[in-house]
Amino acid sequence: MSSYRQNVRHFGSPFYIANALMILAYAPVRLHWYQHGLSKYTRLDDPAQVYDWESQCAQMITFVLAIKSMRDRFTLDVLMGDVFVYCKAAILTVTFMVDPRVCAYFGIVFVLVYLMAPQPYRDYTGAHNTKLLTSSTFAELVIEGAACKRWLVLYFKPGKIGRQVNAVAASLSLTYADDNLHFGRVNTQANPGATQYVGVNAKASFHGATFVLFQNGQELQRLPKQATTDPTIMRADNVAKVFQLDAASDLSRTCAHTIQ
């Protein structure tokens, strides 16, 4: 399937269509207020205050997106997901001030769409030097593999966070992979055997994602060691620092000692 058709199919999913329609539904509501005035349930003193609230919400959305863009690199999926969330929050804020009944209607629809049409995320498709491991290939290559080889394995769940950490693993593999250090990825939902081997779970991960360094089939180190929501933990530079990936000479000495 061509890239164009894949994009059309992806962004034509129920999540994107439903959220776009929900946000557009605010326009006729806003037009009704303009033509017929505010309801008796309003918390505002002047119809002109509706614009003031809308303007403040728009400025806040722009500010938050700008701050997030400086901390994290957006994919289009992540950007659109954030825009939908912030726009829906703004609609709920404005409608609550104008007419709480309308706010309740929007809130119910938002919850129903959230439950029935979750956001789809595409797998990472960029350049990489990693191997997608199954339970069987994990046992063959990582547990029973050559003694002089280390494996840095990423355990992940498909989804938004999974795509982001896969991009981190890909970047690291292109920089540090060699004959002694290999990079692997394990989909925890599809390969419970490889996952249970090291006990990866939500209580010690970054939203279900964990890096584990192996040698001789044994775990040497993992990141994170406990549950965290701090995105800087899984940045490429921090992962390289924690696992000392720049210390190539130390790795060679460790291998030589192992062989002897």
Description of the structure:
It is a single chain. With 260 residues, the chain is α/β, with parallel strands linked by helices. It is 57% helix and 12% strand. It is built from eleven helices and five strands; from the N terminus they run ααααααβαβαβαββαα. It has helices at residues 3-11, 14-24, 26-36, 48-71, 76-98, 100-116, 135-143, 160-176, 192-198, 236-242, 248-259, and strands at 130-133, 150-156, 181-187, 210-215, 218-223. The protein has a five-stranded mixed sheet, sandwiched between helices. Helix 7 (135-143) packs across helix 9 (192-198). The termini are far apart.
In short:
With 260 residues, the protein is an alpha/beta fold.
> Uncertain regions: pLDDT < 50 for 5+ in a row?
256-260
Please provide the ordered H/E string of secondary-structure elements.
HHHHHHEHEHEHEEHH
C-alpha end-to-end distance? 52 Å
Strand order of the largest sheet: 1-3-2-4-5
- Supply Rg: 24 Å
Overall strand count: 5
Mean pLDDT: 84
Major sheet size, sense and barrel closure: 5 strands, mixed
By secondary-structure content and strand pairing, the structural class works out as: alpha/beta
Counting DSSP H or I runs of 4 or more residues, the number of helices is: 11
Share of helical residues: 55-70%
Strand content: 5-15%
Which word captures the global form? elongated
